[in-house]
């Protein structure tokens, strides 16, 4: 159905005469007459009758007018939604984040949604390597990862994170002494590949040898075990945001203890919502 014909029908019904309706629609009266005639022949229903008092709706026209108004309203809403989607103001976006961006990523999303409330954002805690795979497959639109990521992903650096030694209590012991005293708690490789590689790099560069090590499923369990005095852990300093009472962090000064955290995305895929999100991060 041609929406222009429905618009002519509704406008003529509102105005009650061809002259005013044609002026409102910015068309000539003959053109409006042709539109009404075409609509009537298409639906096989006479919509108007002409008399000395002007143009009036027939019984069929009265029955169909509410339906025509409903269709035009729905079409208007559709166009409005389509415009929002085209501008990246409505839709969905999947975001990945890791331990280093544990608080930063949610803050970025909260800021974004204040400007784009029509976008539904999902946030999932994932290792950087898994995020990179999901970005390239299109499952994620944005990832907060260690940078630089693997090509062909694009990225921008955001901040630096670095290792600290998490210990159960304040003490005069240094890093080497703590590693000799308690086991080193580490994430399973599939869960903390990047952190484990950074840990190994730091240990090798500084010729440190833990007395023993223990693998743990997640970061919350590591924190709990450290607080309980069962072990120590080399963690990102950003873990301070979730550190409970009884959790102490020993600073580490080493070139091999730091890395860059940034935002990554697949630049080969067009995505207006993602582009708006990235822009809001750097305009904060």
TrEMBL record:
The keyword Transcription regulation applies. One of its GO terms (cellular component) is protein-DNA complex. Belongs to the LysR transcriptional regulatory family. It comes from the Bacteria. This is LysR family transcriptional regulator. The keyword Nucleotidyltransferase does not apply. Residues 1-58 form the HTH lysR-type domain. InterPro entries: LysR_HTH_N (IPR000847), LysR_subst-bd (IPR005119), WH-like_DNA-bd_sf (IPR036388), WH_DNA-bd_sf (IPR036390). One of its GO terms (molecular function) is DNA binding. Keywords: DNA-binding, Transcription, Transcription regulation.
């Amino acid at each position: 159905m041609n929406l222009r014909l429905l618009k002519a029908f509704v406008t003529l019904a509102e105005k009650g005469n061809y002259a005013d309706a044609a002026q409102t629609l910015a068309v000539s009266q003959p053109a409006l007459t042709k539109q009404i005639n075409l609509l009537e022949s298409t639906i096989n229903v006479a919509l108007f009758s002409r008399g000395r008092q002007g143009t009036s709706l027939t019984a069929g026209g009265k029955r169909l007018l509410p339906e025509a108004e409903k269709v035009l309203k729905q079409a208007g809403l559709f166009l409005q939604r389509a415009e929002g989607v085209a501008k990246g103001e409505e839709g969905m976006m999947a975001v990945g984040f890791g331990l280093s961006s544990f608080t930063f990523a949610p803050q970025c999303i909260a800021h974004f949604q204040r400007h784009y409330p029509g976008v539904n954002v999902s946030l999932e805690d994932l290792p950087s390597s898994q995020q990179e795979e999901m970005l390239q497959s299109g499952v994620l639109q944005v990832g907060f990862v260690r940078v630089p990521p693997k090509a062909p992903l694009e990225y921008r650096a955001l901040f630096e994170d670095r290792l600290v030694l998490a210990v159960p209590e304040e003490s005069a012991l240094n890093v080497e002494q703590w590693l000799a005293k308690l086991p080193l708690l580490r994430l399973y490789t599939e869960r903390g590949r990047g952190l484990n590689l950074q840990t190994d790099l730091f240990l090798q560069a500084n010729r440190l040898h833990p007395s023993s090590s223990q693998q743990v499923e997640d970061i919350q369990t590591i924190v709990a075990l450290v607080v309980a005095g069962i072990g120590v852990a080399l963690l990102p300093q950003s873990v301070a945001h979730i550190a409970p009472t009884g959790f102490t962090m020993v600073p580490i000064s080493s070139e091999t203890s730091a890395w860059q955290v940034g935002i990554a995305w697949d630049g080969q895929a067009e995505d207006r919502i993602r582009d708006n999100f990235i822009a809001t991060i750097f305009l904060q």
